[in-house]
């Protein structure tokens, strides 16, 4: 008890007999019967009780109370109690003042450091300058603009009148005019982009074909809401212009992708300490790093970092703001928007767990959009593994960001909404508390959760590559029976050459790859050959997984069989989780986190995978339209600069 003096009533046979006020030490010494605590409500009784309390307490009683509290909680607690008694403002006003002074001192020291960094080299300090400016803009927005400017702006009568008029009969006309203006602007940008090389318009044909197929095979063609479709592809195109067409945007994305890869490479320090030369083998030809102990270890490191950011509520803040922006532009629900944005960084399992509270009330269209966004992009934790095969990291980052709005657009075109949504406000996620007790708990939990992801990736690679070899052997045996030698499911890769035989996957995906314009070769025979390679990679991605497809893409790059444009288009088309194995992962994940949606997920998963492929293909088409000079990337392989032990022995 914090109050050591209170009034009691003696109870004798259910009747009130006497009322007194005691100190805590007196109760322990005198009271031997049942008591009932009451609150005195009458003003005169309250004043009398206060006088009685002050008169009944002696100096010895007060000393005994403090002495007993000291013995109970120790000397430090006794000192704190006395400080609260004689300095009641210490816990409120002075604590707040000390906090402000401490923050001001830190800011002064930080800006002094920033000044020295700028004076030494502005180019090297450019990143920290940009981050500082962004931080101050956020502070200005949340401390000044939002609390003081927005209420006054909304309170103006002309603003309310304008909003009311827009919601009435003129709203439809204004929307049509706005859509026409934006469409004409997009068309003008496309024409300017392909002015010097009209062959790039081939990608526009592929983009329109994909949208037409989605609309033709739509679940409810007459129910399509064109607002999320238009804005989804519009934002995708805008991101493409900023990241691909605009020079400063390209440099910014290049810098961000370099920093992401550099950050993920720090995982190799811990992996080398634990696994030794399995992570960094000696530079001997044929001794490449073991994939399980090198590139895949970045997944564990990244998962732990995400858990730290989640514990500090940074992840909730960033994702909630991005999802809010997507929600107000595309008019999608909170769970759809949040899942689409989170898929840029997290994998399918993590994003599903994140929106678990919202899953039971999702409609079929919303569940389809959630599944589609999970299939349409790859997790950021896999960037280090992909880039180790020679894949351009900036392309991986760009296609992941472009996939967020495009996944919602494709899902609303392929499976429109026909039910009334019951989704809650997205602000609930922003206020979500961390499940971890502290930062150390977050690090341990994040690392342990990622272990299963690494093991699953390794197990899938072992199984799928083994099954692929078996299927190739069976098909080759069946082909030999009728005189078709070398018949396989995919491209036959030999040591010194690539021989194109009857390629099932290549021919299945060849029409869409050709319409996308993956090759810019003027010679039709060379163009068909390059398109067949890319289409075979697209088929490998769907039948097996993107990891094997990227690994094979790296081998094609090393062999010099793909041009820079074909590399770029293949990277955009392969950066997703749209494969048959991911369907099983989605089914298992949603069956465990939300059993109510298990039947719905099993019914929609295959269609959502097709929509996820369409999202990646549309991003590849936009890249083919906008990119003038694609970047040529080389695979980082130990075999490029290695000691040939066989030649040395000979």
TrEMBL record:
Pfam families in alphabetical order? Gate, Nucleos_tra2_C, Nucleos_tra2_N
Record carries keyword Transmembrane:
yes
Write out the entry's keywords from A to Z: Cell membrane, Membrane, Transmembrane, Transmembrane helix
Q: Where is the Nucleoside transporter/FeoB GTPase Gate domain?
A: 293-389
Subcellular localization, as worded in the UniProt entry: Cell membrane
Name any GO cellular component annotation.
Answer: plasma membrane
Stretches assigned to the Concentrative nucleoside transporter C-terminal domain: 395-624
- InterPro entries from the UniProt entry: C_nuclsd_transpt, CNT_C_dom, CNT_N_dom, Gate_dom
Q: What positions does the domain Concentrative nucleoside transporter N-terminal occupy?
A: 205-277
Q: Which family does it belong to?
A: Belongs to the concentrative nucleoside transporter (CNT) (TC 2.A.41) family.
User: Can you name this protein?
Assistant: Sodium/nucleoside cotransporter 2
- Report the source organism: Trichinella zimbabwensis
């Amino acid at each position: 008890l914090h109050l050591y003096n209170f009034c009691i009533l003696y109870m004798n046979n259910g009747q009130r007999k006497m009322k007194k006020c005691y100190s805590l030490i007196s109760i322990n010494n005198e009271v031997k019967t049942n008591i009932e605590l009451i609150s005195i409500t009458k003003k005169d009784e309250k004043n009398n009780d206060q006088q009685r309390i002050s008169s009944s307490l002696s100096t010895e009683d007060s000393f005994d109370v403090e002495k007993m509290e000291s013995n109970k909680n120790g000397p430090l607690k006794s000192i704190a109690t006395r400080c609260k008694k004689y300095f009641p403002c210490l816990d409120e006003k002075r604590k707040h003042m000390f906090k402000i002074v401490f923050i001001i001192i830190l800011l002064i020291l930080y800006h002094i450091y920033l000044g020295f960094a700028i004076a030494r080299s502005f180019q090297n300090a450019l990143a920290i300058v940009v981050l500082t400016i962004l931080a101050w803009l956020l502070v200005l927005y949340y401390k000044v603009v939002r609390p003081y400017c927005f209420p006054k702006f909304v309170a103006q009568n002309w603003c309310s009148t304008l909003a009311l008029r827009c919601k009435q009969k003129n709203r439809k006309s204004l929307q049509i005019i706005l859509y026409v203006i934006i469409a004409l602007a997009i068309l003008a940008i496309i024409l300017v982009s392909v002015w010097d090389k009209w062959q790039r318009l081939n990608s526009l044909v592929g983009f329109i074909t994909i949208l037409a197929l989605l609309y033709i095979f739509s679940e409810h063609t007459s129910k399509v809401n064109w607002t999320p479709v238009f804005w989804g592809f519009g934002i995708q195109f805008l991101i493409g212009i900023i990241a691909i067409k605009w020079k400063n945007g390209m440099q910014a994305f290049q810098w961000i992708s370099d920093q992401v890869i550099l950050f993920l490479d720090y995982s190799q320090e811990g992996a080398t300490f634990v696994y030794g030369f399995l992570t960094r083998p000696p530079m001997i030809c044929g001794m490449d790093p073991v994939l399980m102990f090198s590139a895949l270890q970045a997944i564990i490191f990244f998962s732990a970092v995400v858990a730290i950011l989640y514990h500090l509520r940074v992840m909730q803040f960033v994702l909630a703001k991005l999802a809010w922006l997507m929600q107000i532009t595309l008019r999608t629900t909170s769970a759809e928007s949040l899942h689409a944005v989170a898929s840029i960084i997290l994998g399918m399992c993590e994003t599903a767990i994140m929106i678990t509270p919202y899953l039971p009330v999702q409609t079929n269209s919303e569940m389809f959009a959630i599944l589609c966004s999970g299939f349409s992009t790859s997790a950021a934790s896999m960037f280090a593994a992909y880039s180790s095969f020679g894949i351009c990291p900036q392309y991986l980052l760009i296609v992941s960001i472009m996939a967020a709005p495009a996944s919602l657009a494709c899902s609303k075109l392929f499976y429109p909404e026909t039910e009334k949504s019951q989704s809650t406000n997205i602000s609930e996620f922003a206020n979500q508390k961390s499940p971890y007790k502290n930062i150390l708990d977050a690090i341990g939990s994040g690392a342990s959760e990622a272990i299963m992801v690494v093991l699953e990736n390794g197990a899938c690679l072992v199984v799928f590559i083994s099954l692929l070899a078996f299927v190739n052997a069976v098909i080759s045996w069946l082909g030999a029976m009728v005189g078709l030698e070398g018949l396989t499911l995919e491209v036959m890769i030999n040591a010194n050459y690539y021989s194109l035989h009857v390629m099932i996957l290549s021919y299945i995906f060849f029409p869409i790859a050709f319409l996308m314009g993956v090759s810019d070769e003027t010679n039709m025979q060379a163009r068909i050959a390059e398109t067949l390679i890319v289409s075979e990679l697209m088929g490998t991605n769907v039948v097996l997984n993107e990891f094997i497809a990227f690994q094979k893409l790296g081998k094609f790059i090393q062999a010099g069989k793909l041009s820079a444009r074909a590399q770029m288009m293949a990277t955009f088309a392969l950066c997703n989780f749209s494969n048959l194995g991911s369907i099983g992962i989605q089914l298992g994940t949603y069956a465990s986190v939300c059993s109510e949606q298990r039947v719905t997920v099993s019914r929609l998963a295959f269609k959502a995978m097709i929509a996820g492929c369409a999202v990646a293909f549309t991003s590849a088409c936009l890249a083919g339209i906008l990119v003038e000079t694609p970047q040529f990337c080389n695979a980082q392989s130990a075999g490029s600069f290695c000691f040939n032990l066989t030649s040395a022995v000979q």
